[in-house]
């Protein structure tokens, strides 16, 4: 939306596509990430917390489905250049379904339906939901810059692993906030400790993978500063740095305070986790803005 209005001839529907994209990132990656959190931290969660997380997965997946269908309709409006009347241009839907947007849509919808299996109790439920989480993250490599720029396979692999790690990180935040509601907040420390042991590997990994993908896509530092894509990336990395700062504060200050039973540490932690969740939403928005414009072609754009 912001970058659309910085270009000549801005279009409201193209701008709304960015907002829609950020919203379905949050819902779909949230659903995928909650499944990964359930796998990684489930043993440390109490029965009612597990039930709550399972409900969140179903709700996030349902929101992801609604938003994915809405994005399809929005695409018809953009293509028809006819505003709301474009929604009734039914001949456009098969065209969209057969495009890359359609490829990504069908993989994502399959993933969203599979993650809903997490609501079931059987031993099969989590493995099925995990397949869904991978499908959701993979769906983003069926469209966007990984389809438009070389090296296509490397970029697709990097973005998929980036998104699996991103989804785990962002979905862990509401779950950590949830366990702080235990009658004695110090009881939440084993969950924080278990999360820290995983995050210390996963978070640097996702940042490193993001930087390698950025290096492939942008190519040269001067091209970073002379493209809207580059500025979107800089804004995103600045927001991620704030998340990292808060994460470090949690690990080295807030959680030890909680463990030591320091009065008010749980409340402070709850507030800073909420701030970190807000930052994560802004990072998702920055990612949607970035994907709405193109890196400068330094000879790596795949001819269409
Ligand atoms: C240092 C940290 C990070 C860097 C350098 C980075 C960089 C990148 C790059 C270069 C891409 C490929 C974008 C494209 O296809 O044009 C990407 C994709 C993405 N990143 Fe990150 N990222 C970082 C952290 C994060 C975090 C923390 C989040 C979420 C909270 C996030 C969310 C996303 C999303 C949703 C996409 C998918 C875009 C798409 O293909 O639809 N990233 N990232």
Give a description of the structure.
The chain has 304 residues and is mainly alpha-helical. Helices cover 77% and strands 0% of the residues. It has helices at residues 2-6, 12-41, 47-80, 92-97, 100-115, 125-139, 145-148, 152-179, 189-218, 221-225, 228-259, 265-292. The longest helix has 34 residues, at 47-80. The mean pLDDT is 94.
What is the structural class? mainly alpha
Shape: globular
Largest sheet: none
Which ligands are bound? protoporphyrin IX containing FE
Beta-strand content:
under 5%
The pLDDT mean sits at 94
Distance N to C terminus: 26 Å
Helix content class: over 70%
Strand/helix succession? HHHHHHHHHHHH
Q: Say how many strands there are.
A: 0
The Cα radius of gyration reads 20 Å
**Could you list the spans in which at least 5 consecutive residues all have pLDDT below 50?**
none
Number of helices: 12
What attributes does this structure have?
single chain; mainly alpha; binds protoporphyrin IX containing FE; 0% strand; 304 residues
Summary, kept brief:
77% of the residues lie in helices and 0% in strands.
Draw up the topology in text.
Elements: H1 2-6, H2 12-41, H3 47-80, H4 92-97, H5 100-115, H6 125-139, H7 145-148, H8 152-179, H9 189-218, H10 221-225, H11 228-259, H12 265-292
The structure holds protoporphyrin IX containing FE.
Protoporphyrin IX containing FE binds at residues 25, 140, 144-146, 159, 162-163, 166, 170, 206-207, 210-211, 213-214, 217, 236-237, 240, 280, 283-284, 287, 290-291.
């Amino acid at each position: 939306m912001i970058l659309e209005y910085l270009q000549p001839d801005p279009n409201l529907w193209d701008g709304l596509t960015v907002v829609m994209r950020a919203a379905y990132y949050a819902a779909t990656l949230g659903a995928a990430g909650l499944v990964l959190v359930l796998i990684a931290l489930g043993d440390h969660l109490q029965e009612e917390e597990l039930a709550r997380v399972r409900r969140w997965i179903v709700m996030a997946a349902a929101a992801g489905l609604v938003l994915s269908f809405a994005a399809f309709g929005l695409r018809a409006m953009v293509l028809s250049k006819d505003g709301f009347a474009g929604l009734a241009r039914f001949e456009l839907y098969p065209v969209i379904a057969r495009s890359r947007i359609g490829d990504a849509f069908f993989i994502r919808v399959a993933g969203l339906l599979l993650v809903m299996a997490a609501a079931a109790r059987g031993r099969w439920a989590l493995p099925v939901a995990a397949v869904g989480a991978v499908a959701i993250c993979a769906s983003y490599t069926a469209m966007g810059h990984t389809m438009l720029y070389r090296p296509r396979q490397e970029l697709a692999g990097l973005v998929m692993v980036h998104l699996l790690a991103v989804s785990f990180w962002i979905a862990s935040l509401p779950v950590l906030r949830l366990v702080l509601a235990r009658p004695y907040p110090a009881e939440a420390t084993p969950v924080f400790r278990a999360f820290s042991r995983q995050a210390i590997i996963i978070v640097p990994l996702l940042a490193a993978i993001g930087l390698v993908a950025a290096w492939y896509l942008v190519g040269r530092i001067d091209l970073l500063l002379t493209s809207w894509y580059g500025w979107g990336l800089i804004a995103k990395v600045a927001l991620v740095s704030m998340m990292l700062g808060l994460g470090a504060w949690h690990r080295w200050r807030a959680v030890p305070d909680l463990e030591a039973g320091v009065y008010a540490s749980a409340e402070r932690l709850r507030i800073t986790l909420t701030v970190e969740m807000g930052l994560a939403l802004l990072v998702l928005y920055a990612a949607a803005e970035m994907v709405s414009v193109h890196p400068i072609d330094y000879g790596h754009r795949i001819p269409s």
